[in-house]
Design a protein that fits this description.
Elements: H1 7-14, H2 18-29, H3 39-51, E1 55-59, H4 63-67, E2 84-90, E3 96-102, E4 123-124, E5 127-129, H5 133-152, E6 162-168, H6 176-183, E7 190-193, E8 201-205, E9 207-216, H7 231-251, H8 256-259, E10 267-274, E11 284-293, H9 299-315, H10 318-322, E12 326-334, E13 337-338, H11 344-357, E14 363-366, H12 372-377, E15 383-385, E16 400-402, H13 403-421
Parallel strand pairs: 3-6, 3-7, 7-15, 8-14
Antiparallel strand pairs: 1-2, 2-6, 4-5, 5-16, 8-13, 9-11, 9-12, 10-11
Length: 424
């Protein structure tokens, strides 16, 4: 299965321990690490990286300082700490590759929709279930397994360059953990983030911004509703304009990686709030939503598109012309990212996948935002995503990952590190 690999890469790949993967993933899924509460899992992962043979730093940059960074990607939760775990292996000063993963997870939601405790890390039919198992503690476990394999095979002592592992908080609400790691010097020649990709290689991803829109109306007694103007009716006017804008933005895309997705840049409203009394015409509705960032756009570019669409809605309605709906950008701001499909990073990684599994992975674009774009745009480090799990089950009830995919990912990562760094 590993024909085509160097002897050192073959040895590292073959040294991956499937039993240790299951134990390790179970242990870290059992530590709740909802965004903004990552300290406990960061401490545990620091211990495990040291045990795997890495030199480890645990950093705690001031969140306020990161907020002042011109590239700050926003946040959607209150945060008092930003725990980073940085591991190093090999010889510094030469070629450097990065394996990075986020350690925060989204809340579990309604527990009644789960068939087991989301923090129990139950294993059934070769799948480990739990919040974050897919997104992306399965990928983190693959990184740990790859590092252990490098040490167990004896290859770690002979690496000609340096492997840096960066385990970061705050990806789910923007990516400030990765930005902080980059500002702390976590940059290199190449990087892989093992986000769930069904073990294909993501070379391009869109982004998203979170917005809050306030839509006005005019209050009146319910019995005299014609004297009022319903903010809810006005919201429908704005939503129709956003639908038109969504159609136009998606139709304008020509990149095959993105057009293959069907709707690469969706717009949704996820929260609607308004009204204080059942028999009063609504005088204000506030909605929070998500607006896609097109490939090649910055969040600021997308925000300008959103404001133009909102202005068009205001101009189309007599009341809104005088009392316009307003938009503010809140929460996470995910830009887009891309490396060329023929770049040595995805090509070389695909070679390693094929050598180990016999399958040539696809090179894909994705509609969601990710930390990949920060390594590319802020860290000057070509980056792709390649990891276990299916993003369709991320953030869902009964989130899970196939342990066999975590193992396969670890084998590929171990071989890739050896090929990219070489041995002395």
């Amino acid at each position: 299965m590993t024909a085509g690999l160097s002897p050192a890469a073959r040895a590292a790949s073959d040294a991956v321990d499937p039993g240790a993967i299951a134990d390790e993933l179970r242990a870290i899924v059992r530590i709740p690490s909802i965004t903004g509460q990552e300290e406990a899992v960061a401490a545990e992962l620091a211990v495990r990286l040291r045990a795997a043979g890495m030199v480890v730093e645990s950093l705690a940059p001031d969140p306020a300082a990161i907020r002042d960074d011109p590239a700050w990607p926003g946040e959607e939760t209150d945060r008092s700490s930003l725990p980073l775990v940085i591991g190093r292996l090999g010889r510094p000063g030469g070629r450097r590759v990065i394996l990075s993963g986020h350690i925060d997870v989204v809340p579990p939601g309604d527990l009644a929709t789960w068939t087991s405790d989301p923090w129990a890390a139950e294993i059934r039919d070769g799948r480990l279930y739990g919040r974050g198992a897919c997104d992306m503690k399965g990928g983190v476990a693959a990184i740990l397994a790859a590092v252990r394999a490098l040490a167990a095979s004896g290859v770690a002592a002979d690496l000609a360059g340096e492997l840096v592992v960066a385990l970061v908080p705050g990806e789910e609400d923007g990516g400030q953990g990765t930005l902080a790691a980059i500002r702390a010097g976590v940059t290199g020649d190449l990087a892989i983030i093992p986000e769930p990709s069904n073990l294909d290689i993501v070379v391009a991803h869109a982004g998203a911004i979170t917005f809050r829109m306030t839509v006005p109306g005019r209050a009146a007694h319910a019995s005299q509703r014609r004297e009022g103007v319903s903010a809810l009716d006005n919201l429908f006017t704005v939503l129709r304009a956003l639908e038109t804008d969504e159609t136009a933005r998606n139709a304008a895309e020509t990149d095959p990686l993105m057009t293959a997705l069907g709707l690469p840049y969706p717009t949704i409203v996820g929260i609607v709030a308004g009204g204080e009394w059942a028999s009063t015409v609504l005088d204000r509705v506030v909605v929070d939503g998500r607006y896609g960032v097109r490939l090649g756009q910055t969040p600021a570019d997308a925000a300008a598109d959103l404001r133009r669409a909102t202005d068009a809605a205001n101009a189309s309605d007599a009341f809104l012309r005088e009392h316009p709906a307003t938009v503010e950008i809140v929460g996470g701001q995910f830009g887009s990212g891309r490396v060329p499909s023929d770049h040595p990073l995805p090509v070389g990684l695909a070679d390693d996948v094929e050598a180990i599994t016999g399958r040539r992975p696809g090179l894909l674009g994705e509609p969601y935002g990710a930390d990949m774009r920060l390594f590319i745009n802020e860290g000057g480090t070509p980056c792709v995503m390649y990891g276990p799990g299916d993003v369709k089950v991320a953030h869902s009830a009964d989130e899970h990952v196939l342990l066999s995919e975590v193992e396969e990912c670890a084998r590929v990562l171990a071989a890739w590190v050896v090929r990219e760094l070489g041995v002395v």
